Structure formats: C-alpha cells, structure tokens
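Supplementary notes (optional reading)

For those who missed the lab, this is the record we used. Protein: DUF1023 domain-containing protein. Length: 240 residues.
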Amino acid sequence: MAQAGHLGTADDSSGEDRRVFLLGFDADGRVVIARNNPDHARYVVILIPGVGAWPSGLDPLLLRAEVLCRELSSTPDDDAVSVITWVDYKAPASPSDARDPAFAAQGATRLAHFIVDRRVTAEAWGRGPGPQRITVIGHGYGGLVAGFAARDHGMDIDALVLLGSASAGTETASGLRVTGPVYATSPEVNGDGTPHGVHGPRPDSPGFGAIVLHPGPLSYGGDPTVRYLSSLKKIILGTR
C-alpha cells in the first residue's frame, strides 16, 4: 500500500483539513485515513467497516470518524484522540457476499500488520505520556475481519469492540488473542446485514463470553456508533 501525508493545504485557514491524514492507499481502492495524527495521539481508534464499504461509500465512513472524534475530544483542536477509518481490504458488497470468509481472511493479515506498525510508530514518534491506547471497532463484517486477525495473528490492543457483528470467526471470546477485553453489541441493532450463524455464533450471545453493550435511544444517519457513544467513550479512554 502506498503511503501519503495529510490531505490539507497550506492556505486552509480553519486547520480542519490539515488534521486529516492519508495513511495509505492503492489502485485497488483500499484506503486508510486518520482524523488527527495517530503518531501523536494518546488514544487511537481503528474503525473497520463491513458490507458495502468497498469500493464506494467513503464519505459516510469519514463522517462517522469525524463524529466519533468530536465526541471523544475535550476541545475542537484536541489532538489527543485519533480516529482511523481502516478500509485496507475489499469488503463484501452485499449480505450475500458476506457469506464468503475470504474477504475477512485477506483483510485480517493486513490489519494485524497495521497494529504492529502502529505500536512501533507510536513508540518512535509519540508525544503523549505513557503508552498509546488502541481500540479496534469492527462494524458488521468488519468485526469478522478483526476476529480473524485476533484469532490467527493476535493483536496488541487495549480493547476490541464487535459492533453489530453477526460473528467473529471463533466459538468464544477466549479464541480471540487480544491483550484487552472484548465487547459486543447486538447484530440486530445497527448491523450491516451479514448473515447470522455462517461464520460462528453471535458475539453478544451468553456463551460467547464478550462484555455486552446495550444501545441508547439515539440514532443518526445510520451511524452504528451513535447509540453506543456513552459506552464507547469509556472504553476508548480507559475509564470503563
């Protein structure tokens, strides 16, 4: 994947565009974009979208990251939080395509490598006190990508959230090799249509062993994070 810098321009008076960083892209449509510089952030969130995320639909994904970043930040110019939209895989175009685990398998390897690189880069260039706190949020089929990465490669992350995911590729949360806790929400609330029971049990089922999050009453433009903002903020900032 080719690497690039920020997307802003030198004459942008607001500074907003200069805080959007293109971390990688390639000709096949895979892309990784960060809101705020993740090298300097104390808290990093990696959002992995699912069905329909590739090759179109980038604008709503970036808006999702923007909303979450603003909710987590104490001030508009706070750079302690970076939210990364990670679409470094070819996501299934439809729920029918989501029956195929191959999309998740090829994305899992890339995600595992990205986490390793993230830790190395933060240690080399980070400015905040203490180690960087990383939370991975996989939405719908994106949860399967994260699940495969954790199962097959292991991930040094502080929390994994399976948001509206029908499955994580394992029978139980103990099969996910992550250093932090695993959280899950109902795939029937803000899921992405990935069929149930195809890739394993529901992560929010009692036997799976994840910490189940319950939705609030809010909704906004189909953004799956909004109804869980209260819980997500505590998880991401480490106050839960």
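If you only remember one thing from this example: The beta strands are 20-25, 31-35, 43-48, 81-87, 133-139, 159-163, 182-184, 211-212.
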